[in-house]
Write a structure and sequence with these properties.
- By secondary structure, the protein is of the alpha/beta class.
- The protein is 42% helix and 16% strand.
- It is built from 11 helices and 8 strands.
- It is globular.
- Bound molecules: 2-phosphoglycolic acid.
- 2-phosphoglycolic acid (PGA) binds next to strand 8.
Length: 253
């Protein structure tokens, strides 16, 4: 199974913008059948219900962009995994580099969020990746290892099938600077090695590993197909349904 996941981030500002988005997306989906691909859209939580209702039966799955680790209580403005699950989200992104960068999120916090999300019955898309200066100092394997070991701490092997890893080199997110195909493949091998070290050969090799960071239809081949990734996490281009579905078709080829 391959995945094309759209992270709509803090966009789509009004109900009319949202309607426009649905209209364009539905027209792009007409007559298109994906063979071995899950298309997932992750809007802001204010749009979750509407996305789930409007895209029901369209073969588009819905996810959140983040969840808090508590189920309910006095945590002003936070959104719990159970809340989004009850609005028909099946997935949630956790540990996105923008959460880490602007909100001081750590892999230890992500560990709590991942556990909560799994408990609520969501599939987790866990984002990991190194900064530019870390790569320049050949630290990417160390960083990926810390992020995986801390983020997945005490999560049993049996839960791995509910976790998707998104390798997102931070320097490629939102920048249009992209890694070479072999750099993506190397990262995939590093991640597989770390996971098999943590969970054993049988379990560690099963996890889907996606690429994210400046994905467009023009570079989907280089960033996903050539390095043998299991799909992509798309930011900006997911705001353009035409482009997003084009990417999905390439990944499903
Ligand atoms: P981008 O974002 O595609 O706009 O670079 C990717 C992401 O944040 O996952």
């Amino acid at each position: 199974m391959k995945y094309v996941i759209g992270n709509l981030k803090m966009n789509i500002l009004s109900p009319s913008d949202r309607e426009r988005y649905f209209k364009m997306l539905k027209s792009e989906l007409i007559g298109k059948k994906f063979k071995n691909l899950k298309v997932i859209l992750c809007p802001s939580p204010v749009h979750l219900e509407s996305f789930a209702n409007n895209l029901a039966g369209k073969n588009v799955h819905i996810g959140a962009q983040d969840v808090f680790w508590e189920k309910s209580g006095s945590y002003t403005s936070e959104v719990s995994a159970w809340m989004v699950k009850n609005l028909q989200a099946e997935y949630t992104i956790i540990g996105h580099s923008e959460r880490r960068k602007y909100f001081g999120e750590t892999s230890a916090m992500d560990n709590l969020k991942i556990k909560a999300a799994l408990k609520a019955g969501l599939v987790v898309i866990y984002c990991i990746g190194e900064l530019r200066e870390q790569r320049d100092n050949d630290l990417e394997a160390d960083i990926l290892s810390i992020q995986l070991e801390e983020g997945l701490k005490n999560i049993p092997a049996g839960k791995l099938e509910k976790i998707i890893i998104a390798y997102e080199p931070v320097w490629a997110v939102g920048t249009d600077v992209i890694p070479k195909s072999n750099e993506v493949m190397e990262a995939k091998i590093i991640i597989k090695k770390i996971l098999t070290g943590m969970y054993g050969q049988k379990n560690g090799l099963k996890t889907a590993i996606l690429y994210g960071g400046s994905v467009k239809h023009k570079n989907a081949e280089q960033l996903c197909i050539e390095p043998g990734m299991d799909g992509v996490l798309v930011g900006r281009e997911s705001l353009n349904p035409h482009e997003f579905i084009k990417i999905a078709q390439i990944i499903d080829q």
